[in-house]
UniProtKB/TrEMBL annotation:
GO BP term, pick one: DNA replication
Protein name in the entry: DNA polymerase
Active site positions: K210 (nucleophile)
Annotated source species: Mycena citricolor
Coiled coil regions in record: none
SUPFAM superfamilies linked: DNA polymerase beta, N-terminal domain-like, Nucleotidyltransferase, PsbU/PolX domain-like
Organism placement in taxonomy: Eukaryota, Fungi, Dikarya, Basidiomycota, Agaricomycotina
Length: 494
């Protein structure tokens, strides 16, 4: 949880303003574990709490419209001083700045006694759900990088990829789920084990027939036919180009009759690269440029190279903003010897304040000036946390870039400190593991009477939107009632 604070500067000296700002940092650094963070915001409309030394309505209205003031908790500076001193976010009622706003301050205080605060992570009254390879959920199965049935999973993966390229999402998901179950099966699947396999979740009659065919023939005929088909090979080739997804690939194949990279090159021949708006701004990667870099961008990145680049980023981050920490996520964190791109999660104890807003963009600007980054591919900014929103993972700041020399893709994701472990879990993957983690949180209500909404803004109890604040990945699993599974056993995809 975050409480957004706005300071009205009227009747405060520069020294007092700086002191209040430093109290926000002091509180955040020393607050008790279950307490929300305070975040300074630039506009009163965004604030949960407005701090002012003005005590007359007429004067306050020069700086804050009365209608808006009546919708906020408007408090004296003493509120912030006591929060810092007690390391606890105080209820606002006794700190009202104006008598006329006493009632509205109590009603709109984000820490009203009736509202409560973060739910503590209390000793568990229910047993933790144990890992079992026959579980319905990928987040309850150990999935190593290489499993005893890896070749079978790969052949089913060809069919699953074909369904994706055709935008047949329902069928693709069915294959993804079956593959995740096969990845967790502890022994080679043989004819003698087929009865056991038939009882596993997500293994229906059609899937079982393909498994039988594989056992008898050594291959799955549909998988072989798909892999050799012109359409599959062409669509797979086209979607290797950055910016071309399955719908675009199908349009190029069906409507424009394109079949080769040379065809694509001709098709995008009029594409012009954008010039940077200033000498310090990285240009956007265009389709033409992405096409020319296709082979480089699809070349796997060894772990050693990922680590070398990360060490450069760490060094530059400390120059930019001392105290930053960063973690490599994605397939690298799951133990893959090679990666398709580099994902780095960046945080700082003061992220979310004005001095760290735009950190992702600042990182890229610095790396561009040093010749490490050449192009920006995608940018997304922070959004206000909202427990009820439907879109996932949008309170982040993400910048995807193209690196010089090695022609690798690298993403920098800036995140609030309290969200770091949530984001690490999400960005580590695998896709099916993370999907089932959210599914388990949602469906847990039917299983354990308590359901959760789980995304980057936090873990919320569905019945009343109360928020839990995990301080580690293990606590995330604990809150959700799951046995902890380490990153290297989350490889639930091919």
């Amino acid at each position: 949880m975050y409480i957004k604070v706005y300071i009205i500067r009227a009747k405060l000296s520069t020294e007092e303003i700086l002191d209040l700002m430093s109290l926000v940092d002091q509180y955040n650094e020393h607050r008790y574990q279950a307490q929300p963070e305070l975040v300074l915001c630039p506009h009163p409309e965004e604030a949960d709490v407005v701090i002012t030394n003005v005590h007359m309505r007429q004067r306050l209205e020069r700086h804050l419209e009365w209608v808006l003031a009546s919708e906020k908790a408007v408090v004296k500076p003493a509120w912030l001083r006591d929060c810092a001193a007690e390391r606890t976010a105080r209820p606002c009622g006794s700190y009202f700045a104006l008598k006329d706003l006493r009632g509205s301050t109590e009603r709109h205080c984000p820490l009203a006694p009736s509202e409560g605060e973060f739910l503590s992570i209390s000793p568990r009254s229910e047993p933790v759900e144990r890992v079992n390879y026959s579980s319905r959920y990928a987040c309850l199965r150990y999935c190593p990088l290489e499993c005893p049935n890896q070749r079978l999973a790969q052949q089913l993966g060809v069919i699953q990829r074909s369904r994706e390229l055709d935008s047949n999402e329902t069928s693709a998901l069915s294959y993804e789920r079956a593959i995740s179950v096969i990845k967790a099966f502890p022994d080679p699947i043989t004819s003698a084990r087929l009865d056991e396999v038939s009882k596993l979740p997500w293994i229906g009659g059609k899937m079982l027939s393909k498994i039988k065919e594989y056992i008898v023939e050594g291959d799955i005929s549909e998988s072989q036919a798909i892999a050799e088909s012109e359409q599959f090979r062409t669509l797979s080739l086209f979607t290797q180009v950055y910016g071309i997804g399955p719908p675009t690939a199908r349009r190029l194949y069906n409507e424009h009759n394109l079949r080769t990279i040379a065809d694509l090159d001709t098709h995008f021949s009029d594409d012009r690269a954008e010039s940077p708006s200033s000498p310090s701004t990285a240009p956007v990667l265009t389709a033409k440029r992405a096409l020319s870099l296709r082979e480089d961008l699809n070349e796997k990145i060894p772990r050693e190279e990922v680590e070398q680049f990360h060490s450069i980023v760490v060094e530059e981050l400390q120059r930019l903003l001392p105290g930053c920490s960063s973690t490599i996520v994605g397939g690298y964190r799951r133990g893959k010897p090679q990666s398709t791109d580099i994902d780095i999660v960046v945080t700082h104890p003061r992220i979310g304040s004005s001095r760290t807003h735009g950190l992702g963009d600042a990182i890229v600007k610095l790396l561009y000036e040093r010749g490490i980054v050449t192009h920006v591919l995608h940018v997304s900014s922070f959004h206000a946390p909202d427990a009820l929103r439907t879109s996932q993972w949008d309170d982040l700041e993400k910048v995807m870039t193209l690196l010089d020399r090695s022609r690798r893709l690298a993403s920098f994701i800036s995140v609030f400190p309290a969200r770091t472990d949530l984001l690490l879990t999400h960005r580590t993957g695998s896709k099916m593991f993370e999907r089932d983690l959210r599914l388990w949180a949602k469906e847990r209500q039917a299983i354990r009477t308590v359901g959760f909404k789980f995304d980057s803004s936090g873990i919320f109890r569905r019945r009343d939107s109360k928020q839990y604040k995990p301080n580690s990945e293990r606590e995330i699993f604990d809150i959700l009632g799951l046995e902890y599974i380490g990153p290297t056993l989350r490889n639930a995809d091919v």
